[in-house]
Amino acid sequence: MKRNIRLILLGAPGAGKGTQAEKISAEFGIPAISTGAIIREAIASGTEMGKSAQSYIERGALVPDEVVIGIVKDRLAAPDCAGGFILDGFPRTVPQAQALDEMGVEITDVLSIEVSDERIIDRMGGRRVCKKCGATYHVTSNPSPAGDKCGVCGDPLTIRADDDPAVVRSRLEVYHSQTEPLKDFYAKKGILKVVEGQEKLEDTTALTFRALG
Ligand code: AMP
After folding, report:
1. Which one, 17, 102, 190, 192, has the greatest CB density within 10 A?
2. In this predicted structure, what is the pLDDT of residue 190?
3. Pairing outcome for strands 136-138 and 127-129
């Protein structure tokens, strides 16, 4: 019997949170919730929330707390979260983490995937994403089996606008100043584990599964 995992994945942009979230989701049968993906979908479909979030995403800034907190509150209320879930990209600020506490959400595990800034900048240039189904790839470390098309749904792969090197640098600054303090926040609660991101994706996955017990 698998335990009910309510997991937060921390880590810099491009550390591999989304990829590991997909693996954990498949292994444990729980949904992976990416606030970034939800916001990108809202932008693509032109909703009010999408329109208000677009300028933040494009310059690598954080979308205001109240917007993302609202997104997560709604999503966690869905029935598929009852057996556990993975939060990929939320919380990203201390007020967001406090909001989760105030919602009465009991997080069981927090994994911080650690990768140096230099490696992140190297890596981001090779990231490819499927806009249709959200699958992510890397041209060398995690290529799509379908070449420049998505291995899951067959749509053409694209490069995220905010993977531009200048935007990546600001996203890293935002990560260090606003999100990294969350490691301390969760270490104090005794639920933080650190996973050193490895060169090979499957090695990081092995460490991630080991950390989840
Ligand atoms: P991600 O796909 O997680 O790298 O997120 C892409 C972008 O979406 C970020 O750079 C932010 O602009 C926005 N975003 C995603 N999650 C959050 C969050 N929890 N708080 C604020 N902004 C977010």
Report:
1. 17
2. 97
3. antiparallel
- What was the pLDDT predicted at 141? 83
Among residues 171, 183, 189, 193, which one is catalytic? 171
List the catalytic residue out of 17, 23, 123, 128: 17
DSSP letter assigned to residue 137: E
Distances (CA, A) of 73 to 91, 150, 196: 12, 30, 30
To which H or E segment does residue 85 belong?
Answer: strand 85-88
Q: Which residues of the chain have pLDDT under 70?
A: 1-2
Q: Which atom of ligand 1 is nearest to the CA of 34?
A: 3
Angle, CA 85 vertex, CA 49 and CA 141 arms, to 5°: 85
Residues in Cβ contact with 108 at an 8 Å cutoff, skipping those fewer than 6 apart: 3, 4, 5, 6, 7, 191
Return the ligand 1 atom nearest residue 37 CA.
2
